[in-house]
Amino acid sequence: MDKFSVLDYNAFRDIAFDWADSLDRKDWEKLGDILAPTIMCLQVDYIMIGVAAIPAMPSSEFISMMSAPNLLGHPLVRTQHLIGATKYEYVSDTETMATHQIRAAHQRYTTPEHKEVEATGHGHGNVKHWYRKMENDGQWKFAGVKPEMYWVEGTFDKIFV
């Protein structure tokens, strides 16, 4: 396969939407539904927030990392990941890489009622996603992520303290 079908594009688009939506809603079960069993090949890289590249990680560990209180699981942190234009790169019949434009808005509140904002930090750049086709059922799954921030606004360093 050297071209993507409409079904492939739809799968990639749906996975990207569900990735962003699950992070913003803190819906870790929804995140688990889109993940490949293992995230591999140095494709988990959140170095810009202090999480170094990881060569391989079971999906359950990825969910634990993202939902931890020092990342998106903190009850005082709210986000919205907005995805813009996307470029897709064919890697193989079972792997695709996408580069999405992204704006990731972050707010940290002073209390769980989310009425007073303590800090805001918004990232602007690209995020690379890897998608892998599963052998058992032929479904595409999320298999890696690497954000690249071009610039940030606000006090991003005060969001994940």
UniProtKB/TrEMBL annotation:
Pfam families: Scytalone_dh. Signal peptide: none annotated. Residues 6-160 form the Scytalone dehydratase-like domain. InterPro entries: NTF2-like_dom_sf (IPR032710), Scytalone_dh (IPR049884). Keywords: Lyase. It comes from the Eukaryota. GO terms for molecular function: lyase activity. Belongs to the scytalone dehydratase family. This is Scytalone dehydratase-like domain-containing protein. It comes from Talaromyces pinophilus (Penicillium pinophilum).
